[in-house]
Amino acid sequence: EGLKGKVVLIDFWTYSCINCQRTLPYITQWDEKYRDKGLTIIGIHTPEFAFEKVRGNVIDATERYGVNYPVALDNRYQTWRAWDQRFWPAHYLIDQTGTVRQVHYGEGSYEETERLIQILLDTPPAAYVTADPGNHTPNRTPETYVGASRLAYATNTDLVVSKAHEYTLDTEPGRDQLSFGGTWTLKPEYAVAGPDAQLALNFYAADAHLVLGGTGTVDVAIDGRPDLARTVEVSGTPDLYDLYVGDPLAATMTLTFSEGVEAYAFTFG
């Protein structure tokens, strides 16, 4: 009832999703630019992983990403199901009469959305907000999960779930394939690094990211190139970390983990 007569943007997101993170600079700028003109933005945070159900983690993420509009915690997927949702991110732009005027899944179409916001608010045409849209390399490696419930690209044939097991690393996995080395404990959503834990991944993309939790380090080696080597410090709220950002690259990435670090999913741009 309180939203009657307002233009409303409902944004479904989850904080460790790279595609969601890339949309937030646009959405937060729209909030700042058009809130006083009648736009109301409501975030619906529907988690992909269990750690994203933790209220404190979501609060921390909203602060880091500059989200100042209300965010509802949809931990039981009730709102997600009510809107017949299937994808992160997704937004619904609703006019003053309650009619949905735009549905958009994924990234992009920012100028189209902002122009429609201006039309619905009856504001003069103005320069659109700008942000870094991120990389979208054609034919890039698909999202790759490390947890047992959605593990699809591992070359290891001796996978063991829910208890520590020592694996032999395939140092040359095929395109888009993943290999475990050293000791890992596979859980449904993630894998926990044990002694000498490594992952090898043959990827093609302009950037590569991994959702990580726990506390420790991940050493990144890419085809033995010293200029691409780095150490990722993992701590605080579980989130997405950069492993490689640059020009499109086809290479094998080898990651060496300190014990206790949790690996959830790779994403690429």
Helix content: 10-25%
Assembly state here? single chain
If you compute it from the alpha carbons, what radius of gyration comes out, rounded to the nearest whole angstrom? 20 Å
Number of helices: 4
Give the strand tally. Answer: 14
State the secondary-structure class: alpha+beta
How far from one another are the termini?
41 Å
Mean pLDDT: 96
Strand percentage, roughly? Answer: 35-45%
Low-confidence stretches: none
Secondary-structure element series? EHEHEHEEHEEEEEEEEE
Q: Could you give a short account of the major beta sheet?
A: 9 strands, antiparallel
Spell out the blueprint of helices and strands.
Layout: E1 7-13, H1 18-34, E2 39-45, H2 55-64, E3 71-73, H3 78-82, E4 90-94, E5 100-105, H4 110-121, E6 144-145, E7 165-167, E8 178-186, E9 191-193, E10 198-213, E11 216-222, E12 230-234, E13 239-257, E14 262-268
Parallel strand pairs: 1-2, 2-3
Antiparallel strand pairs: 1-4, 4-5, 6-14, 7-8, 8-9, 8-10, 9-14, 10-13, 10-14, 11-12, 11-13
How would you explain this protein's 3D organization?
This protein is an alpha+beta fold. It is 16% helix and 37% strand. Strands 6, 7, 8, 9, 10, 11, 12, 13 and 14 form a nine-stranded antiparallel beta sheet that branches. A five-stranded mixed beta sheet has the order 3-2-1-4-5, with helices on one face. It is elongated, with a radius of gyration of 20 Å. The protein starts with 6 loop residues before the first strand and ends with a strand. The mean pLDDT is 96.
